[in-house]
Amino acid sequence: MNAVLRWKWPLLAALLVLLPHLLQGEYPRHLMILAMVFVMLAQGLNLTMGYVGYLPFGYLIFFAMGAYASALLSVNWGQSFWVGLAGAIGLTGVLAFFIGIPSLRLRGPYFAIVTLAFAEIGGLVLNNWVELTRGPMGIPGIPSPTIALPGMTPYRINGSVSWYYLMLVLAVLVTLVCQRLVQSRTGDAFLAIRENEDLAESVGVPTYRYKLLAFVVSAMIAGVAGSAYAHYVTIVSPDLESFYFVITTFTMVIIGGQGTLSGPIVGAVVFTILPELLRAAQLWRLVIFGVLMVAGIVFMPRGIVGWAEEQWQRLRREGRP
Amino acid sequence: MIELSGIEVYYGRVYALKGIDLTVNEGEIVSLIGANGAGKTTILNTISGLLRPVAGTIRFRGEDISRTEPHRILSLGIAQVPEGRNIFPDMTVRENLLLGAYQVRDEHVIRKRLEQAHALFPRLAERRGQLGGTLSGGEQQMLAICRGLMSGPRLLLLDEPSLGLAPLIIKQVVEAIRSINAGGTTVLLVEQNARMALRISHRGYVLETGKVVLADTGARLLENDQVRAAYLGQ
């Protein structure tokens, strides 16, 4: 057991690298790629929701905006994936900044509803600015990314294995950014705001600035996820903001474990795979899914990761009396 | 050290303070006494920047701070210990204290202040790893006071430090306030427990419905017939 613990990081890394070769077939690989997209989305949401304690209901608009920015840059203006990615990050960051300025003056449900309203506006724009976005028809034919380093023949990301590695790298980078952020003075400030915002202000934390920072970084991460997802599925449409993505992402963070770094990862992987396993139950699928969710919230109020930590600490206490 | 002149504060359209003039000199303990709703806490929240006055000025060491943001006011040297043992319940005692020193970057200074806090209330040293929410009421109050001191304030605003505490604990808190003051920190104290407050104060102000109605030394206020009848129950 101890040997396993000591080697957990190298083991995990090896597993993640070997995974596409262990999984045979396109479909399981597709699920893993999707899981990586959701890891990014959930990590981004977790910053604002889990660490700062603000519920951004309209969060998925940044996913859609990132996807559209990247799609338009590559399809309409012939730019590469990397330029699209940068554009997605830039656009979502700026949007979040201007949405955050008025919204973050509100708290609790008021904040949640105002961000939802902004997301609705965004959805209307995507649907109705037909000259630019082609409305509900979406933008098809988004090219695959190409990796071109000097002195190397350009490598085209093509097929599920290379896509998996690209998404893995992006998800790891996003997680590292979140880690740097929350394991610093900034992270202390986030937690202080979540625990008691007025008190945080009175001990000298510039709360408004930190809330804005968290919100903007959240949005930029959603932008990265959106951009990568757009190039992977090769088409974007206003559906990116649909109920499916909203519910899935929020479920992953809440049941995975809010305010932890591993929670969104666990949540993303579990809730990408679980619905597929439940396909065998056919019509009962959604019913079972719902029951599992309610049970999760009732019996693991701190999420899977929080629950696992409690069990682990109890085991250690009983092991060493 | 700090001078409020003509301060008016409204909650919506309801006035809370109508023209407060008040001074605290360097090295003093000054207490504000008065009934519920007289505006005591409002004065502290206005000084610390959580509320904005509609009219009047607050000068702290010569600088007008009546429209300064709360975290700036803290960095100028005013720390507030809010009412009701306000602490971060899901953080440990140590984490609570460290957040009090949020604006301090010098590790050495932080360590020294932690030691001072532990010397002031040895109980906190014993409980440093415990979650704030699991402390007793008295310990939470001690923690809140120490967290206020972690920023190294010149002026400490204490809001009802004795509220809901056992007499024995109140004694400890009073001793602590005295020793904080002896260490060179000026204290502005808001209290329901007027007797306790006036005993340890150099001067006091009596507030009624948003106005100062009496201002004198602590000792003379204790002797004042009006004060005795209204606030000391004699």
For the structure shown, list the relevant keywords.
heterodimer; A: 321 residues; mainly alpha; 2 strands; globular; B: 234 residues; alpha/beta; Rossmann fold; 6-stranded mixed beta sheet; 10 helices
SSE inventory with pairings:
The complex is a heterodimer of chains A (321) and B (234).
Chain A: H1 2-6, H2 8-22, H3 26-52, H4 60-75, H5 81-103, H6 108-128, H7 130-133, E1 146-147, E2 155-156, H8 160-182, H9 185-195, H10 197-202, H11 207-233, H12 243-256, H13 262-277, H14 285-299, H15 303-319
Chain B: E1 2-11, E2 14-24, E3 29-34, H1 40-47, E4 55-60, E5 63-64, H2 70-76, E6 78-81, H3 93-100, H4 107-120, H5 122-126, H6 137-149, E7 155-159, H7 167-182, E8 186-191, H8 194-200, E9 203-208, E10 211-217, H9 218-223, H10 225-231
Parallel strand pairs in B: 3-8, 3-9, 6-7, 7-8
Antiparallel strand pairs in B: 1-2, 1-4, 4-5, 9-10
Helix pairs in contact in B: 3-6
Tell the overall outline of chain B. Answer: globular
Low-confidence stretches of chain B: none
Number of strands of chain B: 10
From the alpha carbons, calculate the radius of gyration of chain A and give it in angstroms: 20 Å
Q: Strand-residue fraction of chain A?
A: under 5%
CATH classification, class level of chain A? Mainly Alpha
Q: Tell me, rounded to a whole number, the average pLDDT of chain B.
A: 88
* Number of separate domains of chain A: 1
Distance from first to last alpha carbon of chain A:
19 Å
Summarize the structure.
The complex is a heterodimer of chains A (321) and B (234). With 321 residues, chain A is an all-alpha fold.
